[in-house]
Amino acid sequence: MPLAEKYFTLLKRHGLKKTRTRMSVLEVMSKTKHALAQSEIEYQLKNIADRVTLYRLLISFEEHGIIHKMTDHAGISKYALCHNNCNEHEHHDEHVHFSCTQCNQTTCIDGAVIPAIPLPEKFKAISYHYSVNGICDSCLNQ
């Protein structure tokens, strides 16, 4: 399936209209193997959307289960496409995020076993955030 059709299908599945900005953000995010900060997405869009529009779009994508958000070792919010069938009611992208302290890239580590967290009675977890800080393979081999 061509990428543009894939993005359109994704937006349609989540009840969102196809717009140039939405399609462009999906394209930018799908071309990288690591999570992106809003400023990185904004830079790659080259004036397609202003900062406020992009911020609102990212919030909307997160609320609809298209992307998930994590915070890196420096406290910067980063965004990555959801790999599972997430939706507006729940995210299934509970996995480890590796944040490199040298290049500042954050990578989703799928497949890492996450332990069950015993919660007190009548507590309900809404989301989990697991992160590992360290030095990535690229930085180690420089």
Offer a concise description of the structure.
With about 140 residues, the protein is an alpha+beta fold.
Question: Can you describe what's shown?
Answer:
33% of the residues lie in helices and 18% in strands. By secondary structure, it is α+β, with helices and mostly antiparallel strands. The strands form two sheets. Strands 1-3-2 form a three-stranded antiparallel sheet. A three-stranded mixed sheet has the order 5-4-6, with no helix packed on it. A hairpin with a 5-residue loop joins strand 2 (67-71) and strand 3 (77-81). Helix 1 (3-13) packs across helix 2 (20-30). The chain is globular and about 40 Å long. The model has no long low-confidence stretch (mean pLDDT 87).
Helix content: 25-40%
How big a fraction of the residues is strand? 15-25%
Which architecture name does CATH use?
Orthogonal Bundle
What is the overall shape?
globular
Radius of gyration, in Å, reads 16 Å
| The CATH C-level class name | Mainly Alpha
Q: H/E order of the elements?
A: HHEHHEEEEEH
How many structural domains can be distinguished in the coordinates?
1
- First-last Cα distance: 37 Å
Average residue-wise pLDDT = 87
Record keyword descriptors for this entry.
3-stranded antiparallel β-sheet; 5 helices; Arc Repressor Mutant, subunit A; 142 residues; 3-stranded mixed β-sheet; alpha+beta
